[in-house]
Design brief:
By secondary structure, the protein is of the alpha/beta class.
Length: 373
Amino acid sequence: MGLLLIPMSLSLSSSVVTTKMSRRQRLRKDRLTSLPDEILEHILSYLPTKDSVATSFLSKRWKSRSLWRSQLNLDFDDKTFQDSFSFRLFLHYFVTNGDNTQPIHSFQLNCSSHGNVIPTSILSIKTLSVLKLKSVTLNEDDPCCFDFPSLKVLHLESVTFTCYNNISILLSACPILEELETKDLNVEELESPAGADVLSLSNLVSADISGDIIRPHWLHNVHHLRIKMQWFDCLDGMFHNLIHMELIFDCTYHSQRFKWGWLIKLLQNSPKLQTMIIEEYDDTIHNYADQEWKDPEFVPECFLSHLTTCSLRNYTSPNCRMQFAKYIMQNSRVLSTMTIQIAKSVKSSTKIQMCKELSLCPTNSATCKLLFI
């Protein structure tokens, strides 16, 4: 059997390469582990909370110092867990072992896959500035814990309240709230107590509301409002700060007949409104419930001095909606752009008729441009 000879130069070369690789690996590892705690905490803040906690197994130093506990933005999603038990266990462990000396600024909880229980301690974190909840239930006993003096952003999606009064209590516990988004809220006890009202949302800048759970007059200080209407509640109070409004009408057949009176009341109560966007759902059945349009005896103040942009979307038939469009054009003194979007379901002949009729309508503003899209 022949003897395999390895050239000395090749052997030394391989040894040098191996040594260099090991040094590089150690250097990379040392560079990461030698970073100051402040930088590591900043890096961890960009990770989902579950991944942030997992980094404690990277080294003894990370585990002993529990850098993940100082994470200021918490993001929990039960989709990454196999079952509800493991998710609840992890959530309880984090809340129990968190660093109480570090303020938590943001908390996001998504329970769309498993159990929807939220730890009571989360509802009283006074340092929170952002709170986002999805697919959770707030029980009847939870309101006593609501205390968010620093909260500026509140998003609620598919959140269930066991009692209607809990909604007003939650909002009242957010005195400096600036941004509110709600979608698909549910209330198990639909009866609304007489005292169910929000004390004040004086700092509210924007609101994006879907459904009829949130009462419009709770938002009386809002500047930008987007609301999807399914029912028309009474309008109490003025909207003195409202400058941008987007309304999406997805009303039932029976509530459709209250739409125009409610809309005129809202315009009357919004003296500084500058931009108005109204979108109609393309539902032929609902069109028959529209009452005949009658021009109000008054002209809203916003028409006289502030309304500059109006967009009417998804118009389906030349009925009272056309009369409403004419009313805006004939009474808005500073209107600069009037945009009409006719629904795709409208026949071409009807669409031509609608465009021609609106084009011939006189305008109160000399600078008004009529656009069809």
